[in-house]
Predict the structure of YHS domain-containing (Seleno)protein.
Amino acid sequence: MTKTTSFLGGIALSVALATSALAAGVEINASSTGLAMQGYDPVAYFTEGEANKGSYKLTTTHDEATYWFASEENKALFEANPEAYVPAYGGYCAFGAAMGFKFDGDPNQWKIVDDVLYLNLSKDIQERWVTDIPGYIEKADVNWDEIEGAEPAELLQ
């Protein structure tokens, strides 16, 4: 085995372990680096009505996940009341949670309902979710109590 192969294998193992550690018992959908919402600013949905990528220069940590912000003002708003801005179901797909699964939420497929940010997996899923938002939220809320601490892959078995 070459040094390069050994090195790359070590990196792959480290990423796998970090991903497992983050997923186990943690309700936030964050990458292996701990980045939440793929770097999108959670406050911008509420203040600007759109999905905006944040900056790696403007960050804060909440529940072991790192959030990026598009402005100092948004960062300050988040730090003052993070629960007002974090997406439902830790940023996992709202429709998936209603079905009892944890799929990545796409920050570009979103909707604010009763001052709560919801993300969905894709445009097709978002279109399906909006056909019965109250019903899907009710199902997801019930399911979330059971699936919150589970790793996404465990729910697919």
In short: The radius of gyration is 17 Å. DSSP finds seven helices and four strands in the chain. The CA atoms of residues 92 and 105 lie 5 Å apart. Residues 1-26 have pLDDT under 50 and may be disordered.
